[in-house]
């Protein structure tokens, strides 16, 4: 039995014995849906240098370019769908009474796969927020106009996502910390562990006493620190846990 399948067996055991399970996902869980990750080959940051575009300064300087970046992702996401990894997590939520899913992704694929209780740390690409009156709306037009305007006050809309240098919503963070501080199993899936504060959440769960298991295509700075680190594709590994 390869050590990967041994580890999957160990994780399956922990999963169905756990009293409370918390999951944190990153771009890697959407890779098998065809959504480019931030760091992989053809990653978002290379083509569009998201670090430069996903910032309030970039939006202030050139809102048209930033909206072009988000419209490009919205159009792509409109054609793509969840993969077996997303569906497996939605199934787990049905079968495990105390199960919380935290995601860094803004692609809405967890909800489209049927997950209901999703903590979106960095917002959601299908929601827009008015830079004038703050109105928040879901807007699934693809594409949006080049410079979309608020229908009630006419000011420029922005994607309702958290940009680099922006604070996360404190209420969302509180919910995430409650879930990771009170679980006995935390799975960290498809994230390179680069972006804070999400990157420290696995370690925080471990410090709070949880068993932490990583599922990732490649090693991350945390692989040696978590209890189990399984190298592989989440779309192939997660269904084996059901
Ligand atoms: C904050 C939404 C307080 C937008 C995102 C200097 C100046 C200013 C800020 C900072 C600074 N230094 C550090 C910071 C803090 C900064 C940060 O961490 N920067 C990084 C770049 C160093 N963080 C912030 O700014 C956060 N706010 O800290 O507020 C503050 C306030 C003011 C000043 C300072 C601090 C806000 C961060 C949120 C940014 N918004 N997304 C959008 O998406 O357009 S982040 C975005 O990038 C994602 O949401 C995600 O969080 C991150 C990408 O990471 P991953 O998801 O891990 O993706 P990645 O491609 O890296 O990895 C994928 C992994 O999957 C890989 O390991 C791969 O091997 C694996 N994989 C691939 N395929 C598969 C797979 N695994 C399994 N199966 C597969 N099939
Ligand atoms: Zn408005």
Strand segment count: 9
**Can you tell me the CATH architecture of the largest domain?**
3-Layer(aba) Sandwich
- The main sheet orders its strands as 3-2-1-7-8-9
- Given as residue ranges, the uncertain stretches (5+ residues, pLDDT < 50) are none
Distance between the termini: 19 Å
Strand content: 15-25%
Number of helices: 11
Regarding quaternary structure, how should these chains be classified?
A: single chain
How many strands, which pairing sense, and closed or not: the largest β-sheet?
6 strands, parallel
Bound small molecules, deduplicated: ligand BV8, zinc ion
What is the CATH level 1 assignment of the largest domain? Alpha Beta
Query: What is the global morphology?
Result: globular
- Summing up helix and strand content along with how strands pair, one would put the structural category as alpha/beta
What fold name stands as the CATH topology of the largest domain?
Rossmann fold
Helix content percent band = 25-40%
pLDDT averaged over residues: 95
Q: Which radius of gyration do the C-alpha atoms yield?
A: 18 Å
Look at the structure and name the CATH superfamily of the largest domain. TPP-binding domain
What is the count of structural domains? 2
Q: Could you spell the SSE succession in H and E letters? A: HEHHHHHHEHEEEEHEHEEH
Explain what you see.
This protein is of the alpha/beta class and 242 residues long. It has two domains: 4-35 and 83-122 and 168-241, TPP-binding domain (Rossmann fold, 3-Layer(aba) Sandwich), CATH 3.40.50.1220; 36-79 and 123-161, SIR2/SIRT2 'Small Domain', CATH 3.30.1600.10. Helix content is 37%, strand content 18%. The protein has helices at residues 3-17, 28-31, 44-48, 50-53, 56-61, 63-79, 84-95, 109-112, 170-181, 201-207, 234-237, and strands at residues 21-25, 99-103, 118-120, 123-130, 136-138, 157-161, 185-189, 211-216, 228-231. A six-stranded parallel β-sheet has the order 3-2-1-7-8-9, sandwiched between helices. The radius of gyration is 18 Å and the shape is globular. It binds ligand BV8 and zinc ion. Ligand BV8 is lined by residues 26-28, 31-32, 37-40, 43, 50-51, 54, 104, 106, 122, 161-167, 190-192, 194-198, 216-218, 220, 233-235.
């Amino acid at each position: 039995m390869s050590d990967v399948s041994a580890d999957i067996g160990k994780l399956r055991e922990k999963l169905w014995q756990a009293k409370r399970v918390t999951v944190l996902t990153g771009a890697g869980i959407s890779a098998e849906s065809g959504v480019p990750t931030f760091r992989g080959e053809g990653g978002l940051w290379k083509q569009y240098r998201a670090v430069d575009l996903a910032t309030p300064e970039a939006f202030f300087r050139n809102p048209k370019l930033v909206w072009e970046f988000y419209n490009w992702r919205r159009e792509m996401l409109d054609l793509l769908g969840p993969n077996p990894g997303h569906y497996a997590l939605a199934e787990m939520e049905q079968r495990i009474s105390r199960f919380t899913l935290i995601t860094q992704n803004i692609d809405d694929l967890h909800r489209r796969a049927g997950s209901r209780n999703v903590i979106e740390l960095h917002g959601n690409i299908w929601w827009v927020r008015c830079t004038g009156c703050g109105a928040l709306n879901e807007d699934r037009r693809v594409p949006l106009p080049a410079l979309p305007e608020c229908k009630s006050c006419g000011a420029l809309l922005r994607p309702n996502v958290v940009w680099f240098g922006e604070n996360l919503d404190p209420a969302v963070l509180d919910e995430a910390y409650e879930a990771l501080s009170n679980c006995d199993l935390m799975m960290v899936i498809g994230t390179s562990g680069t972006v804070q504060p999400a990157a420290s959440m696995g370690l925080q769960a471990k410090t709070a006493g949880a068993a932490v298991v990583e599922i990732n295509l490649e090693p991350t700075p945390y692989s040696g620190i978590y209890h189990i680190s399984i190298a592989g594709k989440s779309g192939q590994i997660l269904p084996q846990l059901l």
